[in-house]
């Protein structure tokens, strides 16, 4: 949904002033502190704390129902929080939500464009409701997506509607761009253009991108930092390169039967997955030491495998960290 009404209202007194706050003052574009949201008895976001640095491309991940969309809607004032606090671009959303939203672009999986309008009319509507507007920017994106001002919106495909919604969000030149499943409905070529041109261009301009996606391959291409949540709680949050540095996978095969329990007892092994006659061990720390222990157990073949984001995502959600052991924050220290 791209809801233009949420950005309307009197223009802020800060309109002519940039809202960037630099690292010497406040380095975070988004600050969420113990955010709590519930739908009746069902907890959607459970005391979630996040810090999104200015200028970062931040991947917000989790399975269906994890609380991602609820978090995003709460940040944008589309639903109320029951506890905690949040700030966008150094604005407290509880007291200065309009000012924050006037500097924020938002694109959701399902848009709320006015189907009876033409593309050009929708562009003009968005321009009038935006605190600032760059016609050169939106014209460039309309050309990129082959969208004509005379096309009726209700005649556009789902992918083309998503492209129009994205162009409108970028036309306001937001300091913060929040994307919820932004490439849904796009064909592979348009998805590539989005990832390698639009996101790069926005991030190189010093803006912050906060996005949720189920396509982990595309997240890995562009994100420099990620958070994974599950059941409304933070599972892990770190720079992607740092997670890859500390998390390893070791594939091993034996010529004899072996107990999974024996493999799980090797120091550093967090989880063991059986893959036919082979095993994949998820390791945090010294993978060489784990490989040596496997050889002592009579392993026929041992191979260390670099973890990609999909493997990291599955590993954390499968709960391979011992619940009674140190948290991921503790182990980073």
Provide an overview of this structure.
The protein is 33% helix and 28% strand. With 333 residues, it is of the alpha/beta class. The protein folds into 2 domains: 228 residues, Rossmann fold (3-Layer(aba) Sandwich); 91 residues, Alpha-Beta Plaits (2-Layer Sandwich), CATH 3.30.70. A 6-stranded mixed beta sheet has the order 6-7-8-3-9-10, sandwiched between helices. A 4-stranded antiparallel beta sheet has the order 2-1-4-5. Helix 4 packs antiparallel against helix 5. It is elongated and about 70 Å long. The chain starts with 27 loop residues before the first strand and ends with a helix. The N terminus and C terminus are likely disordered.
| CATH architecture level-2 label of the largest domain | 3-Layer(aba) Sandwich
Q: How much helix, percentage-wise, in residues?
A: 25-40%
CATH superfamily of the largest domain: P-loop containing nucleotide triphosphate hydrolases
Strands in their spatial order, largest beta sheet? 6-7-8-3-9-10
Average residue-wise pLDDT? 84
What is the percentage of strand-forming residues?
25-35%
Q: How many discrete structural domains? A: 2
The total of helices stands at: 12
Whole-Å distance between the termini? 40 Å
Q: Which structural category do the helix and sheet elements fall into?
A: alpha/beta
Radius of gyration in whole Å, from Cα? 23 Å
- Topology as a string of helices (H) and strands (E): EEEHEEHEHHHEHEHEEHEHEEHEHH
User: Could you please say which CATH topology of the largest domain applies here?
Assistant: Rossmann fold
Unreliable runs, pLDDT <50, ≥5 residues? 1-24, 320-333
CATH class of the largest domain: Alpha Beta
